[in-house]
Amino acid sequence: MDLDDILALAETRPSPLEFARARRVARAAQGQYDLALAEGYEIMVDADLVDPLTWDVDEATRVARAAQLAKSGTVTWVAGGRDGLGRLSWSDEMAMIFGHAPGTLRLTPETLFGLVHPVDAGRVRAAVRTAWTRCRPGEVDFRVVQPGGSIRHVHCHLEITTCEGEPSGIVVTGEDVTALELARQERRRLAIRSRMLGADLAVLDALTGLPNRGYVIDEVDRARRTTGGVLVVVATEPATRLPDALTDTDRDRLTAAVAQLLRTVVGPGVTAGLVGSGLWGVLLAPADDRAEAAESLAARIVETFRNHLFGVRQNTLRLTTSAGVVRFGSGVPATGFDLLVDGEHAARDARRDTAAVVVLDEPVADAERTARCRSRVRHAVSANRFALYAQPIVDLSLHQVTRHEILLRVRSDTGEPVAPVAFLDMAERVGEILMVDKWVVDHALAFIGRGAQTSHYQVNISGKSLADPGLLTFVTEAIDRHGVKPERLTFEITETALIENRNEALAFARGIRAAGCHLALDDFGTGYGALAHLKYLPVDLVKIDGTFIVDLCRSPADQAVVSKLVELCQTLGIRVAAEYVQDDATVERLKSYGVDFAQGYWTGRPEPITVSRDEVQSVELELRFPPRHTALG
After folding, report:
1. % of the chain exceeding 90 in pLDDT
2. Can you give the residue ranges of the EAL domain (predicted)?
3. Does domain 381-632 have CATH number 3.30.559.10?
4. Which tens digit of pLDDT belongs to each residue from 303-354?
5. Which one of 2.40.160.40, 3.10.420.10, 3.10.20.310, 3.30.450.20 gives the CATH number of domain 57-202?
């Protein structure tokens, strides 16, 4: 039985027996009421005792009385009248809900609906029409616009009065539910936010599951601001050069095995992460009993790693391992990055001196640290300790490879090419990234110039290098020197948050465009000023950062961000590429959003540039090695 059935049953005329029973109940209730008054009890309920079956009283009056008791307002419309428009009135409570003092507004249907929010007016009219047509109660929620412009949320019940079975009027009972509506909206927002909020995948290395370089640096910074502590940096490198037959998958497995062994040695509850290619950081706080024995822990890690046999392609491999220990107190001026560099240098010193561990009782002086970092970068550039790898990029509209990205790798002491994340981070912080950029531009354009140049080529430049006023001249001269067609070339700015001089960046962008080249932005969606750059930089392409792509099919938040970024770029006339694409499901979703290009393990892993130049249809050159899935290669 539903509400309509109950109302239909209630309209049925009771039998004489039912009338008699009702009178007995009424007399009993009246007796109890009189007895309570005689005994001096105060009646707290403001209600008139009436026969429950006397329906023939004014229904509108009854509803208005109930609304007044519930501190609600009413609007009453009675059909008929000389003009045929009927009689419309509202209670003082309802007038105040609509923001008007009682008796100050002459109420007509037009003025009443004029107070309803324009977006909701049609829905309110439809609800009234439905209740009148069906002669059944209804309800509706809507907003009212008060004279001062304030918006209030109102919930109303609609009741139809009848006369001889025909509708004769409408009584609307309403209450201000603004507080309830705002609370409901907040609950809904929190539920959506909880569903959208996922784990910060950017803090973990996807392969090892350990915290990455940025996370470890942040934790060291927090420790130096509060308690101080000890940082242990472990440097690992294959004792012999890895066979050329090894794939990236083999290297990934080796990295994962090293991470697992490190977790076993340091135990739970200790911050231990991957801070570079073959570099591992372990942070010990003073409250940790092992902080006093940090040197012993470092020696144990080194000994364990040196004695462990790692399996690679059914072969065994040993690691050359050394460690640096840096002690620091609270409030030291050295940053977390500085302390990490000090630990890495200490580990290098230990390896050079054939020692297991080198301990620094305090951070190195700034001048000494900077000089050593600059020396490392300059030596790497002068000695050509770099290698270029190519990764294919697929045009999703054509479903074929039309581009390649050239990735920079740094050669280790054994000649093994490794990811340059830590090296480039150091070069940027000590102001030597420009010479690395120039090396890559020169060698990359030389490679492109020897090819067929049948498609488009992209060369990335660090945002910090744009502050150099001579960069544009160097690039344009390199284009001419190597015979690269400018219309086939795009320069991609990496790390847009690091742009130090907006004017120089804009001058470089305009100069490149004037020369016939295009402009692109990398790591889109992560830089603090990425959206602002789209306003003044003549950008033709953006690459959405891979942190939004790797979990795209499972993350509603990533889906919302990517779809809106693509929509924004399409509105601005900018093409879009996605990094870290790894499976068909991600590709199909990217296509549905309108993404133009896809890059990642789905398109192919990076390969050394050893093929004939004519086989490369398009090359995209970048200074950063984007996949965070590998560490030793």
Report:
1. 45
2. 370-620
3. no
4. 999 999 888 777 788 899 999 999 999 889 999 999 999 999 999 999 998 8
5. 3.30.450.20
Rg (CA), the chain: 38
Which segments within 463-527 are labelled E, that is strand?
489-494, 518-524
Q: Give residue-wise pLDDT tens across range 572-592.
A: 999 999 999 999 999 999 999
SS3 233: strand
Phi-psi region of 415 (alpha: psi -120 to 50; beta: other; left: phi over 0): left
Task: Go through 606-619 and write b for each residue having 16 or more CB atoms within 10 A of its CB, e for each that does not.
Answer: beebeeeeeebbbb
pTM: 0.72
C-alpha to C-alpha distance for 278 and 418, rounded to whole angstroms: 8
Tell me, what amino acid is at 512? I
Mean pLDDT over the full length of the chain: 83
Structure tokens at 322: 């050394």
The tokens describing 535, both together, are: 């306003």
pLDDT exceeds cutoff 60 at 93: yes
Yes or no: say if 404 and 620 are a contact pair by the CB < 8 Å rule: yes
Q: Residue-wise over 436-467: b if at least 16 C-beta within 10 A, else e?
A: bbbbbbbbbbebbbebebebbbbbbbbbbbbb
The whole-angstrom separation of Cα 127 and Cα 138 is 7
Whose tokens are 């302390």? That residue is 339
> Residue ranges of the domains in the chain?
11-55, 57-202, 204-364, 381-632
How many helices and strands, by DSSP H and E, does the chain display?
A: 19, 23
Q: What does the pLDDT read at residue 611?
A: 39
From edge to edge, which strands make up the β-sheet containing 271-276? Answer: 271-276, 279-284, 229-238, 319-328, 357-360
Residues making up the chain, counted from first to last: 633
Strand partners, 155: 141, 175
CA atoms of 409 and 462, how far apart (whole Å)? 15
The SS3 assignment for 457 reads: strand
CATH 3.30.70.270 fits 204-364, yes or no: yes
Give burial (CB, 10 Å; 0-12/13-18/19+) of 94.
buried
The vertex-48 CA angle with 77 and 160, nearest 5°, equals 25
Distance, in Å, from the CA atom of 104 to the CA atom of 117, rounded to the nearest integer, reads 20
The one-letter code for the residue type at 24 is R
| SS3 state of residue 420 | coil
CA–CA–CA angle 375, 379, 384 (5° rounding): 155
d(CA 334, CA 330): 10
